From TrEMBL, chain A:
Domain of life: Eukaryota
Chain residue ranges for the region called Disordered: 666-693, 749-777
Gene Ontology annotations of biological process type: meiotic cell cycle; positive regulation of transcription by RNA polymerase II
InterPro entries: VIR1_yeast (IPR054776)
Short name of one Pfam family: Vir1p
Membrane-crossing segments per the record: none
Protein name: Uncharacterized protein
Bias-annotated ranges (Polar residues): 672-682, 749-762
Automatic annotation (TrEMBL), chain B:
Organism lineage string: Eukaryota, Fungi, Dikarya, Ascomycota, Saccharomycotina
Membership in a protein family: Belongs to the MT-A70-like family.
Natural source organism: Zygotorulaspora mrakii
GO biological process: methylation
Enzyme Commission no: 2.1.1.348
Catalysis: reaction(s): an adenosine in mRNA + S-adenosyl-L-methionine = an N(6)-methyladenosine in mRNA + S-adenosyl-L-homocysteine + H(+)
Listed GO MF terms: mRNA m(6)A methyltransferase activity
Name of the protein: mRNA m(6)A methyltransferase
Length: 812, 511
């Protein structure tokens, strides 16, 4: 965002003022939080040339903080301030000038092994856009930031001070290849060694050979993500190296908003993309979202309009959010699966069942999310502007976990943009749901359309937001390698709070309508998916009870329809657990009812299943038909064999009837049933249910799954059902279509058209039609385009001139 | 709360009750009901009474309301799934005419009841007089109307095509015999080219035939190319401009006469028309099947891979919206090196090329049946058979007398197969006939490309199988063994292709 010089001045002044206050020893928590928040609004450009290093020379802001007693989260606050002072060259004197003084004041290190070594940029990037400093600081506890400062950051600074700038850098390059594997060291390098890096780059024989080439590559991959903080010149160096297409014009285009939006469109156009194979696209997406965040909505809409996008801004953002969430969820599932396989390989046979359990845990989004949030498109060509150079090799080395991290950051960024846009709309009094019916003839359909639009709009948001919540749930509940670690726990917190933020903005913008849709959506989804049920409860809890003056609660109390919708949702799902309590106590003003315990036989439960009767039938039929079925399915799968077996069957589109009345399938009774009843009917089958159902009635405590095979036959009847019917109906169709075509041939006797005349075609005996028979001059020869194109493009013709309108033959 | 009041409420609001945000939810409907009748005996209104009233309505006017719960059990989450307002109105009228007397079910016979087997019910419906105002009939009529309504998408797709299709210049052909005869005498011909008309001959012609000059400015003229060996009495050559033996063929051939400035005017007009079309592209009011970057997206240049399709890994190519295949059907023929025979063709893994989409398969003669069989086995259903009616230079159908046992062949067949349910297709734009001139042996008409591009939309990935270099076309991927090398722009395809080449067993095969 462009900041006016006045604001800029004010910012710098207040920061400077805070430094002075701290230096003078006046430390209080509020001031510190404010300072951190203000630092969050800074960027490298704003700071450039504002501070003379001499100005800050004698300053020591850290000693007073460290000496201050009773300050909460002291380690974290110092850590964040060190990070900020490190990323801006202008503020570095605050550290270099006094580090020797205050190092002894740090608590002695625990000498715990640091499993995670965050760099400065990781820490400062937490604050940038959603600057709720007071919320984030306590979460940093997870980082052990105090230890990071003591063991990782400060030793580097001390070494830097002792060796002198250049010396330390060169020593690092030559001796410590570990840099590239250690985020903390890399960030230190980027923050302090600008001149060393650029110098080394200019020495060609050194820049293109290891170890520097490797180091630079890694530094670029890291540095490019932090445009806000990395020194402009250095950033340029990084981005030229990684992303430049080689043409200056192209590189300039890459800076334009057009380009940023086109990247979003490219992502949306290719929902099938495997992001692990497209590191460049992912990097571009990250940078695009990063930049889009800073652009006011009117400019975004203007540019998007000029690009002729078929999707609105919100649609693009939500689709991107959905696609990223989905991809990350799938990645998580695959990791679980891989881990499961590893476990399986290690475990002995008896313990195998445990692996099966974990496999079934995979998180899934409801399948209709995909089809209702995305448009239906054919496979689309890739846009060359993203992939214009054969440099995928260069960026290829981006590791999978790096990509996951980037995608995660992209997701959070897009959520932030959504929230920001909603806020901006409100500020300029723009209601996305405003339905302007002035000048339209109002009829009953008008309101139907209005409802539909509102529903679509809300679904658009809710689908993507719920996807994010499902992802968040998956991360917090699973233990796979991508999401492990403290850093990800924190990112997940941020993901959750960013998502919640969008929910709050939605309610703020759309009030009761928003809340009603949200509750309905949650209720609808919960019936399909229990994961979503628990997510919904968590969400509603947070929206309604997280603070005392909750907007959602006010809305709820004002509107009876919404109130009772929520009431019903809670009543249906209330199982007596803790999470339901606030709803009863704080909202409905009743005591939470005690759940009633009821015992039901499994068979009674099974009878509630849809298609229970037909499932029973099928299972009994399977016993008879199984061998035949298997042969059929095999034939479908193995194409080669199928050719020989089914070559007699030809599909004839002209004679096949479109509708074949289904005959009742005759049920072949299984041996068991036929012994029970002489004329087996479906009813008989249900009442005297054969195995395996009968077992449950006899002994409900028995574990239903005794072996794997049983389990399959029990829980996969629907699959067998489909193969059964397709196999069955084929023969049926064959018979009835035969009969049908007989009838139709009697009814519709083909009639020879009257215009049978020879004029339509050239006379077969006169092999060479001469010019004498060409049409009259008064008729302009039309080229068949009318015919071929169905009437458009009348003025000119799309085809080569030689083609001719078929009707002209008749009139010749 | 009276049942009549509930009835009135239902009649007035029936449209909105089933839609968002209420979705027919009984509790919500009750809330709305309360807000509608605030002044009446609101205190007496409970949800139980309300659902009782609904139940009464259900009982009296059978079929007027459909609830998702069983009779007598109104659950917390009961829903109204359907409201037949005409029945409700009927009931309301009845109540009013009876003047407040209690109405019973027998006063309100809604017609026959839907009982018995499916067949009996079907027959019942069929036996009824269509004019009867029975609720089933009303519904049936509604359904029929709905089914017979042509969706707006058809018209919209057509209009969109009209606005954005690229225009190609076209010059009509003059059919005036007099002009032909006259031009034959005044236009100098040398070898196989036409010279320009000498000025004095032109002014002479102007006197003899007043319309000629004007006609020359507007139309294309065909002038007989009379050679010493030409025997006019034999008539026109069957092959005309595609004749291989121009230097010895004794039949009449023709040359085109088009003044240069006519070409210029046409191309200028075309350019203008295309520019207008271009300007209309960025207002995407109808976007069915378009990707979201439809307007800004650059067309991909032509791409191709020269390969032996029998040894090629199709997964390299990715997925396509449309595929054209023009195989050399060879039932009893000796094959040139590198072409595959019918069995090998059938074995090609076509199923990897499309998840859903359309496949166009050129077939000839007895391969028509085989083609249908192949399509079925590749997982397609045969939708259409496009006919290409071949014409010659003079826009006449071609009758060569060379092919066809009983009747002479004048067309070729193109089978259209459909896989899956690609709802992004733009349907009903084109027809299943192409009338277009022949060119080189076995070269197919370019009109097909336009047809497919309109069907699948501008940026969809499209593949041509067994293509030759004249098949290369922007936006298309071409595969064949007679192509000049390899040219791939899509980096993911390129990457996969390089991986394919690098496979050891393949390198072995090649060497
Ligand atoms: Zn003429
Ligand atoms: Zn000839």
């Amino acid at each position: 965002m462009e900041v006016s010089p006045q604001t800029n001045d004010a910012l710098i002044d207040s920061i400077m003022g805070s430094f002075e206050t701290l230096h003078r020893g006046h430390v209080n928590a509020k001031l510190l939080l404010l300072l951190i928040e203000t630092l969050g609004h800074l960027n490298a450009k704003m700071l450039k040339g504002r501070f003379q290093s001499s100005e800050l020379k004698g300053f020591d802001i850290f000693s007073p903080i460290l000496k201050c007693n009773g300050l909460e989260n002291k380690d974290e606050i110092v850590g964040v301030l060190v990070a900020y002072c490190s990323v801006y060259a202008e503020l570095q004197p605050l550290i270099t000038g006094s580090v020797a003084t205050w190092v002894p004041l740090l608590r002695s290190a625990n000498h715990e092994i640091l499993y995670f070594r965050p760099g400065f940029y990781t820490i400062v990037s937490l604050f940038g856009k959603n600057a709720k400093v007071s919320e984030i600081i306590p979460k940093l506890l997870k980082f052990n930031l105090g230890d990071v400062v003591r063991q990782l950051w400060i030793p580097q600074w001390i070494s830097f001070v002792n060796n002198g700038k250049g010396g330390y850098g060169r020593k690092l390059i030559e001796s410590d290849l570990n840099i590239a594997l250690n985020e903390g060291k890399m960030d230190f390098f980027i923050a302090t060694m600008k001149s060393t890096i650029i110098e080394e780059r200019n020495v060609t024989d050194r820049s293109s050979s290891p170890p520097f080439s490797f180091l630079f590559h890694k530094l670029s991959q890291r540095g490019i993500l932090f445009s806000r903080w990395v020194d402009k010149g250095l950033y340029q160096e990084f981005s030229t190296y990684l992303l430049s297409s080689g043409s200056k014009k192209r590189d300039q285009e890459m800076d334009s908003l057009n380009f940023q939006l086109e990247i979003l469109m490219e992502v949306v156009d290719h929902p099938e993309t495997n992001y692990f194979e497209e590191p460049k696209l992912v990097t571009f997406l990250y940078l695009s979202l990063d930049k889009i965040y800073d652009i006011p909505c009117n400019q975004l809409h203007l540019t998007l309009g000029a690009l002729g996008s078929t999707q609105s801004l919100f649609a693009l953002l939500n689709m991107v959010q959905y696609l990223l969430s989905k991809f990350l969820i799938d990645t998580g599932n695959i990791c679980e699966l891989l881990q499961g396989t590893q476990i399986e390989m290690q475990l002995t046979k008896e313990k195998n069942q445990k692996w099966y359990k974990s496999k079934n845990n995979s998180t899934k989004l409801p399948s209709w999310f995909h089809s209702s949030i995305l448009t239906h498109n054919p496979p689309i060509t890739k846009s060359l502007f993203v992939y214009d150079k054969d440099d995928w090799l260069k960026i290829e080395s981006t590791s999978t976990s790096q990509i996951v991290e980037l995608l995660f950051a992209c997701l959070i960024n897009s959520l932030l943009i959504s929230a920001k846009l909603l806020k901006e709309y409100r500020k300029i009094k723009l209601d996305p749901l405003a339905f302007d019916i002035s000048g339209i003839e109002v009829n009953e359909n008008t309101f139907k359309i209005e409802y539909l639009i509102k529903e679509q709009y809300m679904d658009l948001h809710l689908i993507s937001l719920f996807s994010s919540l499902v992802l968040s749930e998956q991360i917090s509940s699973c233990t796979n390698q991508f999401y492990e670690g403290k850093k990800n726990a924190l990112s997940n917190d941020i993901l959750f709070s960013s998502t919640m933020n969008v929910f709050k903005e939605l309610l703020e913008s759309h009030g009761t309508i928003g809340l009603h849709h949200l509750i309905n959506f949650a209720a609808r989804m919960s019936e399909d998916d229990l994961t979503i049920k628990s997510i919904s409860l968590k969400l509603l809890n947070a929206l309604l009870f997280d603070n005392d003056d909750s907007l959602a609660r006010n809305l709820l109390q004002k509107n009876a329809i919404v109130y009772q919708a929520l009431h019903r949702f809670i009543v249906i799902w209330d199982d007596g657990s803790e999470i339901f309590r606030p709803f009863h106590e704080r909202l409905f003003h009743t005591e939470q009812p005690q759940p009633k315990a009821t015992s039901v036989t499994i068979s009674a439960l099974l009878e509630l299943l849809p298609n229970y009767e037909s499932m029973l039938q099928i299972i009994s039929e399977q016993r008879v038909q199984k061998p035949a079925n298997r042969a059929q399915t095999q034939c479908h799968r193995e194409k080669g064999q199928c050719v020989l077996q089914t070559s007699g069957y030809k599909f004839n589109p002209y004679s096949a009837p479109s509708f074949v009345p289904a005959k009742k399938t005759t049920i072949e009774p299984s041996k068991e049933t036929s012994s029970l009843t002489e004329q087996p009917s479906p009813q008989a089958l249900i009442k005297r249910s054969p195995e395996p159902w009968a077992n449950y009635r006899r002994d409900i405590t028995k574990v239903p799954v005794s072996s794997n095979q049983d389990r399959q036959s029990m829980f996969r009847p629907s699959i067998d059902y489909s193969t059964y019917t397709s196999a069955g109906s084929r023969t049926e169709q064959g018979q009835s279509s035969f009969a049908f075509s007989n009838i139709s041939s009697q009814i519709s006797v083909p009639k020879t058209p009257d215009m049978s005349s020879s004029t339509m075609f050239s006379n077969p005996w006169e092999e060479s039609p001469s010019m004498h028979s060409t049409p009259n001059i008064s008729k302009i020869v039309n080229t068949g385009k009318n015919y071929i194109l169905g009437g458009h493009n009348r003025m000119k013709n799309n085809s080569r001139a030689q083609s001719i309108h078929i009707d002209d033959f008749e009139q010749t | 709360m009276s049942t009549e009041q509930v009835l009135r409420f239902l009649i007035t609001n029936h449209e909105n009750l089933l839609l968002a945000p209420l979705y027919g939810d009984l509790r919500s409907i009750f809330c709305v009901y309360l807000s509608c009748f605030q002044d009446d005996d609101i205190l007496a209104a409970t949800f139980q009474l309300f659902s009782k009233a609904l139940q009464d309505i259900c009982d009296i006017a059978d079929g007027s309301l459909a609830l998702n719960s069983q009779a007598g059990e109104m659950y917390q989450n009961s829903r109204v799934e359907f409201i037949d307002v005409s029945l409700l109105k009927l009931m309301h009228e009845k109540i009013n005419s009876l003047g407040g007397e209690r109405i019973k079910r027998r006063d309100f016979d809604t017609g026959h009841h839907l009982t018995g087997s499916h067949l009996e019910r079907m027959l019942c419906i069929l036996n009824q007089d269509a004019n009867e105002n029975k609720s089933e009939n009303i519904l049936l009529r509604k359904l029929q109307k709905l089914l017979s309504t042509c969706p707006g998408s058809i018209q919209l797709a057509k209009e969109r095509e009209q606005h954005i299709s690229k225009t190609v210049g076209y010059i009509p052909i003059c059919t005036n015999e007099k002009h032909k005869a006259l031009l034959a005498t005044i236009v100098p011909t040398s070898a196989h080219e036409l010279g320009s008309i000498p000025g004095f001959k032109l002014s002479q012609a102007k006197v003899n035939c007043p319309g000629l000059i004007d006609c020359l400015q507007r139309k294309k003229h065909f002038i007989p190319n009379i050679k010493p060996h030409t025997d006019i009495s034999l008539g026109d050559c069957s092959y005309l401009d595609t004749c291989h033996k121009l230097n010895s063929c004794r039949y009449t051939h023709y040359l085109q006469y088009i003044p240069e400035n006519l070409c210029k005017t046409i191309s200028a007009e075309t350019k203008l028309a295309n520019k207008l079309n271009e300007n209309q592209k960025n207002y995407p009011f109808y976007t069915h099947g378009n990707c979201c970057s439809n307007f800004v997206k650059q067309d991909l240049p032509e791409q191709w891979i020269q390969c032996d399709v029998r040894k090629f890994d199709f997964t390299v190519l990715g997925k396509f919206s449309a595929v054209i295949a023009d195989p050399a059907w060879n039932i009893h023929m000796n094959l040139p090196y590198g072409t595959c025979n019918d069995n090998e063709l059938l074995e090609l893994p076509f199923e990897t090329l499309q998840d859903e989409g359309i496949l166009f398969l050129w077939v000839t003669g007895r391969a028509i049946e085989m083609g249908k069989e192949f399509l079925t086995k590749w997982g397609y259903i045969v939708l259409h058979e496009i006919s290409w009616v071949k014409t010659n230079q003079l826009s006449r159908t071609i009758v060569t007398g060379r092919t066809g046992h009983w009747l002479n062949h004048s067309k070729e067949h193109l089978l259209v197969g459909l896989k899956g349910n690609p709802i992004w297709l733009n349907r009903k734009i084109d027809t299943d006939i192409i009338v277009s001139a022949t060119r080189e042996t076995s070269r197919k008409p370019d009109e097909l490309y336009g047809l497919i591009e309109r069907l699948v939309g501008p940026h969809a990935r499209k593949l041509e199988f067994f293509g030759r270099h004249h098949n290369l076309r922007p936006g298309w991927f071409t595969i064949g063994n007679q192509l000049p090398g390899v040219c791939i722009h899509e980096l993911d395809v390129k990457k996969r292709y390089e991986q394919f080449l690098a496979k050891p067993e393949r390198a072995h095969k090649h060497s």
